[in-house]
Specification:
Order of helices and strands: HHHH
CATH superfamily: 23S rRNA-intervening sequence
Low-confidence stretches: none
Number of strands: 0
Radius of gyration: 16 Å
Distance between the termini: 19 Å
Shape: elongated
CATH class: Mainly Alpha
Structural class: mainly alpha
Amino acid sequence: MDTETFGYKKLRIWVLARELVIEVHRMTLKALPKFELYEEGAQIRRSIKSVKSNIVEGYGRRRYKPEYIRFLDYAYASTPETIDHLETLNETESLADEPLFSSLHERLLQLSKSIYQFTRSVELHHNENLH
């Protein structure tokens, strides 16, 4: 099956999450001290990947509106977790690249807002009879 046929890849929130998964992963490998690879680096990689994975899993359950919303809520909850890890890296000076921190921070805030708005839209307008 051609992976481009998966509808979740057309979701703006998935596209934003995917971009951030890649950038956060690269940041942890290139901009952090080696000891952080297995500590806060591992935590931030897991939390941002959780955002994307929950968007995908929710989409797979979209026939059932409450299930879809539940997984979108998980994705939403993992976004501030990721922001908290990023802020910790910055505050402890493990992430010393201020422009990189600011860029990732702003994009994570935008992703959080986008997931929230998308979830509200699903709550109000989702067709429960999808097949």
